[in-house]
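Note to self: keep these together.
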Amino acid sequence: MKEKNLIESALYIVPTPIGNLDDISLRAIKVLKEVDIVACEDTRRAGQLMKFLNIAGKKFISYHEHNERGKSVQIAEYINQNKSVALISDAGTPGISDPAYRLINECIKKDLKIFPLPGATAFVPALLASALAQIDLFFLVFRHTKKAGKLLSMI
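Structure:
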């Protein structure tokens, strides 16, 4: 008997490994297997990940900084039509130094469900391997805007 698909119509923010593909979580694999569509920065990189995970036949939508405005509306419309979409980046968690926030905001505006999965980060392993692991941590995300640049120069 085939297991019933338990994925809801929603946006799933799925972290991908930074470096070693074996670092992907079981939950991320399950979501990637079950969603209808995978929105990704680079369809070739996503294809390599899917091949590594033995996941075939997924529909990919290219979603990156050069097409994010129009694609955010299109992807949100798919979710509104009862499709499930996984958003992945080339490496790490979507929304950290990539355009995921536009799609997330579009889904929020349309009152669509969003499920962020925990996963890959580069700074936590680096922090743990350093002599700084026991001090307070302040994490500042670099923003690619003039306004953020002014803010960073004031710090």
